[in-house]
Design brief:
654 residues; mainly beta; 2 helices
């Protein structure tokens, strides 16, 4: 398992802490606002393609990590799912999806994207399963077993073979068969509204287990662990039945905060070695460490403590469906990317605007710039954030693109349409530099972008204006423009970013390659980038959005559509890594940051990619890996002294 840096999309350590400390368990949420058909989720399952299926009170949802496909009953379509109300989901050994609804059983055909429901005449043998179905499982022989509310147990050997109905000869509550699981080769364990029963497949007899395991409780679910222990979730606590039949009962102890949080349980799933997650109705999730015999309670982390379903997928991701409050999901393998969302009603959060830049100044104050929200400042040790917007302290524009700090500790802010701002921290005031068409020593135009303090000048680039140099002593600007007649000028007037490497060389990322400034001769050396990958087709790699030099001295270029490029400054040679060939999440690289372990982290148009410099292997992170839904902004990145990495987006920062 590869190591992850600690970043402010927090890749958090997932090892369990010492006793008494609550291990981190972070959830993100999906609701109807994200495309879910309905906010009450009763069932969850993952298919062999990696799609997540959610059964809701109003539709079946297929989720690919980005968007939902919703299936509902259509009365005039015999191949639609038989009801909107989905109550259970099951994947059999043939990788078929079975859908239990309030109006019977359905089988999904992924090739035709249709459902065979047993209300119609195509499968007359299964017509008794047109309603009242509760649970479904499969034994080792591939036989499907189905429990019903009041019509017994059904055995399905094939879709066109008569299913067999068997009813328990017990009182009414025991005829409501809920959950079932294969206990061993010859028996099934069945939960009812009044305890546990065993069904012998050979003799077709029901065996009453209530004298051994108690009565007067409803069985909600049964889970078999890798030691063949059966975990029975009930309305009266947790019952664990060992392989030899011994019973352990675990219930809430009001005097012990480390005991089970409540007794009305939904289901149990494995989390890690010797650790399990337990869904508790109305109380959220308990993490049960069987080695330490401790329970950790999670409620506030969820969108609601009223859980209906709990599921662990093939990657180890945890999914928790709620009553009325949507889906919660947590990634346990990489941990979740945590999005600090904008909050217009909080003084302790960014209130509005796309996050365009980050900076920690000389006294460890964090500054954040936004497109549309102005500038935000949080001083070290303070929780409240100071907000600067147009009309305050000399600021005249709220579309702030980025910022930098010069050697004299002044802060500089670029803007879209508002010119260039200089901030004096002693006076808490902004001073503005604007373009004057009648003054050739003024700023090139008012649409400024990146800045850098180099050779006692502030270098500024913008949108089609070339590069301006501000002499801090005279407050006069000198502008460099492209000339078709002189190849020592900048390659284009559209310059996107600046970068100073470890040799104090100034690099320009432009819309027509990269360039470095020759201080001695006061001119530029330009490199037009061509695709040198082994891929046969040519791609546009010449628009350079970001530049980063790694700890080994290689320059890395993020391009608009051409992927990631390595550049050798000594030879001028470069190599392109593209998503189709090398596994980047997207070819448009917004920002590049090197972590403390020598990996590159790339924000892209489709998530974040971790790039191993040594192996040249990529690990792409998207919504399915816990990455929140957001679009990243160009060059909006920052790594602080502790190794935390920040990426800015349209919906807050990571």
């Amino acid at each position: 398992m590869f190591r992850f840096l600690v970043v402010l999309f927090f890749i958090v350590c997932t090892s369990l802490n010492v006793a008494g400390q609550k291990p981190p368990l972070v959830f993100h949420h999906l609701t109807v606002a994200d495309g879910l058909s309905e906010n009450t989720i009763r069932a969850i399952v993952e298919d062999d393609k990696g799609y997540m299926w959610f059964g809701c009170e109003d539709g079946l949802n297929k989720y690919n990590g980005y968007e939902f496909t919703i299936y509902r009953n259509t009365p005039d379509n015999p191949y639609s799912v038989s009801s909107r109300n989905i109550t259970a989901l099951f994947i059999d050994s043939k990788k078929q999806l079975w859908v239990v609804t309030s109006n019977g059983l359905n089988l999904y055909d992924p090739i035709l994207d249709i459902f065979y429901n047993f209300n119609n005449d195509k499968y007359p043998a299964l017509k008794p399963l047109s309603g009242n179905v509760e649970g479904i499982t499969e034994d080792k022989e591939g036989v499907i077993w189905v429990t019903t509310k009041d019509n017994g147990l059904y055995k399905i050997t094939s879709l066109d073979k008569v299913s067999k109905r068997m009813s328990p000869p017990f009182e009414e509550n025991c005829k409501h068969l809920d959950y079932l699981i294969t206990e061993n080769d010859s028996t099934l364990l069945i939960g009812t509204w009044d305890g546990l029963f065993r069904f012998n497949k050979k003799t077709e007899r029901f065996i009453d287990l209530r004298s051994q395991y108690g009565r007067g409780y409803e069985v909600r679910s049964i889970f078999k662990d890798d030691k063949q222990n059966l975990w029975v979730s009930t309305t009266d606590g947790l019952k664990i039945i060992s392989k030899d039949g011994a019973l352990t009962i675990i219930k809430n102890d009001e005097k012990n905060i480390n005991s089970l949080g409540g007794n009305n349980l939904n289901n149990v799933i494995p989390y890690k070695k010797d650790v399990y997650l337990i869904g508790i109705d109305g109380l959220g999730i308990d993490m049960y460490d069987t080695k330490k015999q401790l329970f950790y309670h999670y409620s506030d982390e969820l969108s609601s403590p009223n859980l209906n379903s709990l599921y662990k997928d093939s990657k180890g991701d945890i999914w928790a469906g709620t009553y009325l409050n949507g889906m919660n999901y947590s990634n346990t393998t990489t941990n979740l990317f945590v999005l600090k969302k904008n909050d217009p009603n909080s003084k302790r959060a960014i209130q509005k605007g796309i996050i365009t830049g980050f900076l920690k100044d000389y006294d460890n104050t964090l500054w954040i710039t936004t497109d549309g929200g102005g500038i935000y400042r949080r001083k070290e040790g303070e929780e409240d954030i100071t907000h600067y917007e147009a009309g305050k302290k000399g600021l005249t524009n709220n579309v702030i693109i980025t910022m930098m700090q010069d050697k004299e500790h002044f802060l500089w802010f670029s803007s879209y349409g508002g010119g260039l701002y200089k901030y004096d921290p002693q006076l808490d005031t902004f001073y503005v530099y604007n373009n004057d068409p009648l003054d050739s020593t003024s700023l090139f135009n008012n649409f400024t972008k990146s800045m850098i303090d180099f050779n006692d000048h502030i270098w500024i680039c913008g949108y089609g204006g070339g590069v301006s140099l501000l002499d801090k002593k005279t407050n006069k600007f000198k502008t460099y423009l492209h000339s078709n007649k002189d190849d020592t000028t900048i390659p284009t007037d559209w310059v996107h970013t600046f970068y100073i490497d470890k040799d104090s060389t100034l690099w320009l990322g432009t819309f027509d390659g990269i360039s470095w400034y020759n201080l001695k001769d006061n001119n530029f050396k330009n490199y037009i980038l061509k695709n040198r990958s082994s891929d046969s087709h040519q791609v546009d790699i010449n628009t350079v959005i970001d530049i980063c030099q790694d700890s080994k001295g290689t320059l890395w270029l993020g391009t608009m559509g051409g992927g990631l490029i390595s550049f050798n400054k000594k030879t001028g040679k470069h190599y392109a890594y593209t998503s189709e060939k090398d596994g980047l999440s997207n070819n448009c690289i917004k920002s590049i940051v090197e972590d403390d372990m020598g990996n590159l982290w790339l924000s892209t148009n489709n998530g974040i990619t971790k790039f191993n410099i040594d192996t040249k292997k990529c690990k792409a992170f998207t919504v399915k890996d816990g990455l929140p839904h957001c679009s990243f902004y160009f060059n909006s990145k920052y790594k602080d002294e502790s190794g935390k990495i920040y990426f800015g987006s349209n919906n807050g920062y990571l």
